[in-house]
Amino acid sequence: MIKDPCIHVAYADDHTLVRTSVISYIQNLGGIYADIEATNGLDLIKQLEHASKLPDIVMLDINMPGMDGFETLQYLKRKWPDIKSLILTAFEAEWHLIKMINIGINGYLLKNCHPRTIKLALETIQEFGVYYADAAEEHFYNKVQDGKIKLPHITDKEMEYLKYCPTDLSYSQIAAQMNTTVKAIEGYMTRLCEKLHIRGRIGLAMFAIQFGYSKVDTKAISKMVIGLKK
User: Fold this and answer.
1) Rounded to two decimals, what is the model's pTM?
2) Number of C-alpha atoms within 13 angstroms, CB side, residue 96?
3) Taking Cα atoms as reference points, which of 158, 204, 205 lies closest to residue 180?
């Protein structure tokens, strides 16, 4: 069987102009085809359940009526775990992205990015599994995964902090869990960013998930799926 060179995507966004514009632009760039357009998470799931072929990657907005991006991604991860995901959002709040990373996104972009960046993100997720918005971070991670370079030494305390990075805990709450101070937590973050060539907690959260320092909360996902089936 000849492998389809085209990346097939589904896109859920309640803003029709944004959705149609993004799809039109990335399809015109070539190599990307949107099989499914949905107005929210419920619409997306309904279409996926009746699709003759599932998409490679689902693009999701966060703020959608009926079923938002958080609920949708949790459901997708449980029912179709092989489908990758790219969040395309206007929200820059750290907790939004941290929550999405904890659920298991493969990448995220802000809506003010260039459409060519969306195509790049989709291609990178398809090939490597994860897209990092910072090119330097992506280059570093790819080298680590390819075995070209080794990870620097990470102390026990730094590893413990990495475990909490993808959670929705605040810095003071993480400090309490680790029985230390907020200043110490900020120190762990600074040193890890320097060692791993990463900028900020969001990058560290994606690193922690990708390299197994922290795990997705599968219990929370299961509870969400049970709730949706009622």
Assistant:
1) 0.69
2) 15
3) 158
